[in-house]
Write a structure and sequence with these properties.
The protein is mainly beta. It contains two helices and 14 strands. Strand 3 and strand 4 form a beta hairpin.
């Protein structure tokens, strides 16, 4: 049975609906139990990419953006080897769902490579339950966890990265797991141009839900794009990104975004996912001081309240 596309940021709502349906095995919004599992994995955890409307496959750099393009984890392998980098963050989906997602990423040098470690968690507490007669029952909890590890490097002019991941959904009696692979490439071209491409959530194996016997796979994401960076004056520059992004069986979306850097420390960002009927304009900013970086993004949704998130990065630990 085909799964109806679930909008970006509303992916959290799909998980909530699935949790509400777990006791009765009934469909919610046309989705069977388990059909909406893992849909939150469509959500980018990079406030920079979010603020660029979802674009950034060619501009991704640093441990915090390895979920956009694993090649971003190659930060530090060209020239100065650099130390390790740690990113922690929080995502707040539309307030209607009363939950948040936490994540942490760690990148450290290993010879001429970088080791990438990442974990993300989403949890719901006190979800109302219902019996077969639609009567309220005891509330219960649900959570989703993803753990991954990989390598990144720079060879033959390309930044590259790849990782393996384990994801698990626990929702009442519908618990399921999957093993995934992620890979990406990025290359600087001439005249400030760059190109990048990535595949994430490629399913290597997926289990079945205990209640329905349905095999559940996370949404495969294919993304490719171009970036352009131009220096304007000492300490300032402008960057533009244009991507094509395909999530599972959804229509292709063309995220476009721009970033303006000033004083070497302040980044102002805006973006829009062209062709996406559910998500709207995104805005964000970043601050960089010494070894510390802070990024924030807000994304508008056409029918729900907006979602937002932040990350704090510490480099050269």
């Amino acid at each position: 049975m085909p799964v109806r596309p679930i909008p970006f940021f509303a992916s959290f709502s799909a998980l909530a609906l699935c949790a509400l349906a777990a006791s009765t095995v009934r469909a919610q919004e046309g989705l069977d139990l388990g059909a909406s599992s893992f849909q939150f994995l469509k959500l980018s955890l990079s406030p920079r990419a979010t603020a660029l409307g979802g674009a950034g496959a060619a501009l991704a750099a640093g441990v915090g953006e390895a979920e956009v393009n694993p090649a971003a984890g190659a930060f530090g392998v060209k020239g100065d080897q650099g130390g390790s980098a740690l990113t922690v963050g929080q995502e707040y989906p539309p307030r209607e769902f009363g939950t948040s997602a936490s994540h942490v990423s760690w990148n450290l040098p290993w010879d001429r490579r970088r080791v990438m470690l990442h974990a993300r968690y989403l949890g719901f507490d006190d979800i109302p339950g219902f019996d077969d007669d639609n009567n309220a029952t005891t509330a219960y909890k649900a959570h989703t966890l993803k753990l991954q590890a990989g390598l990144a490097g720079h060879d033959f002019g390309f930044d590259w990265g790849g990782s393996a991941a384990y994801a698990r959904n626990n929702i009442a009696d519908a618990s399921y797991s999957a093993y995934l692979a992620n890979a990406g490439l990025r290359r600087d071209l001439l005249l400030g141009l760059s190109a990048g491409a990535s595949v994430t959530n490629l399913t290597l194996w997926a289990s079945q839900t205990r209640e329905t016997g349905e095999t559940v796979e996370p949404p495969l994401i294919l993304q490719a794009g171009l970036g352009y960076v131009r220096r304007l004056s000492p300490g300032s520059r402008v960057a533009v990104a244009l991507d094509a992004r395909r999530v599972a069986d959804e229509d292709v979306v063309f995220p476009v975004g721009a970033e303006y850097q000033v004083f070497e420390a302040l980044f102002i960002r805006a973006g829009y996912p062209v062709g996406d009927p559910d998500n709207g304009i995104a805005l964000g900013f970043g601050l960089q001081w010494s070894r510390f970086g802070f990024n924030y993004a807000y994304k508008r949704h056409e029918t729900l309240s907006g979602g937002h998130g932040w990350t704090l990065e510490i480099r050269d630990l």
